Amino acid sequence: MRLKSFYGKTISETMTKVKQELGKDAVIISTEQDGPDSFHITTAIEQESLKQVSSQNAIRDQILENTHYLFNTQKIPFESIQKIINEIEPYIENNLENTLEKFFSDKLLPNKPPCKIDYLIGNHGAGKTLSVMKLATALHLQGQSLCVITTDLEKFGTTEQLDSVTKMLNIDLTAVEDHHALLAAIELNQDKDKIIIDTGGLNPYHSTHLNITKNLQASKFDINTIFVTQANIDPFELAETLAELSQITIDSICFTKIDLCKRYAAILHTILNFNIPISLISETASIEDNLKPFDSKTLLSLLLDSIKDEHSLKKVS
Does 189 share its domain with 130? Predict the structure, then answer.
């Protein structure tokens, strides 16, 4: 006997899938509601039926079931889970890990080629200043010449934090009050290998905030705009923010506070629904813990580590 699960948005839809594949006499082991719009029914397939199922089909079914289970634990919308299930079939390998790595390698977008100026934007508390300090520390240790510019003169302690780190690293720090001062500071530091710009909290619904970035992107300088956001943000809130930010160019996203996450719905929702590369992640609040490049192996590791019960994923036989 082998167990097989069926998934659907409603109990009736899920039961229809069971009857279509196994008939009206299907042996149902359990019926569970995973979320407001997600149900699954576990059935038992008798040995006689199993003889008619090829080994390859059994592997395929188990990988699809494990995929559904894994992404259901991330609490992403049922439609997104179904999108993954519908699109993953051509990528199926001999196990779940290889299948998902191959799938996400194709889904993750390439990053913009490196340029001199990294411009970090994001909402209050997203981790922009910490990301700037991490980036500056790593580049300094690589022997690159750089300067840090901050436009965040309102948040208490931000300039002081940057001043402390840049002095320790012997890096130039410039604080600017407006767009013209920012352009002048960039021009003044064109001899540096890298210019990193920290910014104040961004309100994506405030046209003045967006215009600051629009004006910089319209200048003669090649700007790499990185949107910084915490990984544990609500995926729907992030989606609304990114929709508003479509008025400007976002070259990539850096997800922070990975260590505070149990689920990665925001990251998955971004990959599935927005044509924006994810370039970096920040795992902890320690400056010594560098920003890490984001790729399919990193994502797979995060997803599998998020499942506490190591036996939750069924073995492929």
Answer: yes
Q: Total domain count for the chain? A: 2
Helix (H, G, I), strand (E, B) or coil at 229: strand
Average pLDDT over residues 256-285: 94
Query: CA-based angle 254:105:71, to the nearest 5?
Result: 75
21-35 pLDDT, tens digit per residue, is: 777 777 887 787 777
Domain boundary among 79, 107, 135: 107
Helix (H) or strand (E) holding 4: strand 2-8
Helix (H) or strand (E) holding 303: helix 296-305
Distance from C-alpha of 122 to C-alpha of 128, rounded to nearest angstrom:
7
Longest dimension (CA), the chain: 78
What pTM did the predictor assign?
0.84
Domain that holds residue 137: 117-294
Residue 15 φ then ψ, to 5°: -65, -35
What CATH number is given to the structural domain containing 142? 3.40.50.300
Q: Residue 94 pLDDT more than 90?
A: no
Which residue in 112, 84, 66, 64 sits closest to 271, CA to CA? 84
Same domain, 76 and 220: no
- Give the separation between CA 3 and CA 23, rounded to whole angstroms: 15
What gap in Å lies between CA 302 and CA 60, rounded to an integer?
Answer: 23
For 75-128, the three-class secondary structure string (H helix, E strand, C coil) is CCCHHHHHHHHHHHHHHCCCCHHHHHHHHHHHHCCCCCCCCCEEEEECCCCCCH
Same-domain status, 63 and 210:
no
What are φ and ψ of residue 261, in 5° steps? Answer: -100, 140
- Are 230 and 127 spatial neighbours (Cβ–Cβ below 8 Å)? yes
